[in-house]
Structures are given as structure tokens and as C-alpha cells.
Amino acid sequence: MTDEHEVVGGVTELLHAWNDGDVEALKGLMPMVFADLKRMARLRFASERAGHTLQPTAIVNEVYLRLARQDVPQLANRDHFLAYAGKMMRWILVDHARRFRSERRGGDQPTICLNDDLGLEQATAPVVDLIALDEALSRLEELEPRQSRVVELRYFAGLTIDETAALLGLSISSVKDDWRMARAWLYRELRRR
Fold first, then answer.
1. I want to staple 59 with a disulfide (CB 3.0 to 4.6 A). Which of 8, 29, 41, 170 is the partner?
2. Which DSSP letter does residue 157 get?
3. Distance in angstroms (rounded) separating the CA atoms of residues 170 and 185
4. Mean pLDDT in runs of 10 for the chain (193 residues)?
5. Is residue 5 exposed (0-12), middle (13-18) or buried (19+ Cβ within 10 Å)?
């Protein structure tokens, strides 16, 4: 039986090999992070509208395909990889939402429910257009890049406060503050729409 330390070390070694141009390293890496990627995708789908045409496994497969087709990003460790994969999941979901909107020509809009994933404390969680959330996050990134990054890591990559702090090299209290401020800003922005 393999312990978690060996798996994490193996992920790091494969990332370094992939960074150095070993295209086969990605094939070895994916089984080691598949469960994490599937968990991240499931978290995203918990807030998607009913009847979504994508499924968590399809998102994970699309992440793999995009990674295999692009230039290798410089990812130092497992956490960096998962953070990048979370960002890719955001892009995949937004691309899908845009195609859906285009096909429907402004009919039913793809939506997500802003529940406790973003920690918006309210009696009923609003249903929000995924494209509107992406646009709001892009505006937040222009104003407060670190807060936007915290949201990406927490919401799309599913990292904890502690994991986010470690990845960004920040204190836990700084991440908590950024998370709180970003949620409030996003809530105001999305309510305005």
C-alpha cells in the first residue's frame, strides 16, 4: 500500500519530468490526481443547474485533453497542479456556458447557485449566470488580483483556507480576510446584475 507522502512525491517528480518535456509524464500523473480532480469537479457541479449537459468525469477528461494539447505550464508541486486544474475547470465551464448561450440565442441562461461554496450567508442562495460570475471574477482580478486568486483556489480548485495560504505564501488570516472581502464584493457585483 502506498502512503500519501510517496504519492505526493511521485506527483512532484512527474510534474518536473513533464516540465522538462517528458510528454509521457502527464499520463503517469493523471491517475495519481484523478480522485482530487473528480472531487473538484463534483464540487463545481453541486452548484450547477439541474440537467447540466456536462458531468464531472467529462470535465476531468477535458482538463487532461487541454493539458496534453498545450505548452506545459511550470507547476512546482501537486498544489500548484490542482490550482491550475481548478482554473482550467473554470474556463471549461465558462466556455460551455457561452456555447449554451449562443445555441439558445439568449434563452435559458446557464446558471449556478451561489451557496456555501462562496460562503454567501443568506436565507436563499441566488441563482447566478456562470458567465456573470466569470466576468465579475475578471473585474475583481483587475482590482484585487490576490482576492481573485483566493476565490479561484477556494471555489474552483476546492482548496481549504490552509492549503490556499500555503500555496500563495500568505498567512491564514490574510487568506480569510481576502476570502471575506472577495465574497462581499462578488455578492454586490452579482446582485447589481
1. 41
2. S
3. 21
4. 54 90 90 91 69 77 89 84 89 83 55 49 51 90 95 86 92 97 92 79
5. exposed
